[in-house]
Amino acid sequence: MRVAVYPGSFDPITNGHLDMATRAARLFDRLILGVYRGSEHGPKQPLFSVAERVHMAEQSLCHVDNITVDTFDELLVDYARKVGAQAIVRGLRAVSDFDVEFKLAHMYQHLAPELEVVCLMTSSNHSFISSSIIKEVASLGGAVDALVPPLADEALRHRFDATRSVPGLQSE
Predict the structure, then answer these.
(1) 103 is catalytic
(2) pLDDT tens sequence across 58-88
(3) Shortest CA distance to 104 belongs to which of 112, 155, 72, 150?
């Protein structure tokens, strides 16, 4: 059985993530969308809890039989070994992503030579989408409904509408 892990924070999951996952699922018998838990004290604090991110991913991908959603908080190659994966799937949106992914692929190869790294080019209509940009636009009241699945759009609106309506929490 060919198993791959598609890792990320998915904070929130976007249509670009969904496109990448469904395309990768066609290449493998099983694709595990690995939601990285991250560090509570790390520099990148998630907007949504792990449970919320898992729920959004599961609901958005429930129509694809060979995708499962899981969480991990260890070194990616250790997680991939633990779940029996032979490959790690990464997405490339732009040339700038290539440099980062190239270095990561070589590190993965150094740490786990038995794992392959498969990089898929994003579909052109999703090439500008990132979770960071989605959160920024949504936090300022912009519409992101065409860029994220409905559950993520609802969660973003709820999160930011609540923040905007609480005195003292508005952006300056």
Answers:
(1) no
(2) 999 999 999 999 999 999 999 999 999 999 9
(3) 112
Q: Given the residues 9, 53, 90, 93, select the one marked as catalytic.
A: 93
172 inside domain: no
In a domain, 155, yes or no: yes
d(Cα 57, Cα 130) in Å, to the nearest integer?
A: 15
Question: Is 170 inside any structural domain?
Answer: no
So what's the pLDDT on residue 112? 97
44 carries an active-site annotation: yes
Catalytic residue among 9, 17, 53, 135: 17
DSSP H helix total and E strand total for the chain: 6, 5
CATH number at residue 77: 3.40.50.620
Judge whether 17 counts as a catalytic residue.
yes
131 part of the active site:
yes
pTM for the complete prediction?
A: 0.90
Classify strands 87-92 and 67-72 as parallel, antiparallel or unpaired: unpaired
pLDDT of residue 43 exceeding 90, the answer is no
* Number of separate domains in the chain: 1
Close Cβ partners of 130 (under 8 Å, ≥ 6 residues apart)? 14, 16, 93
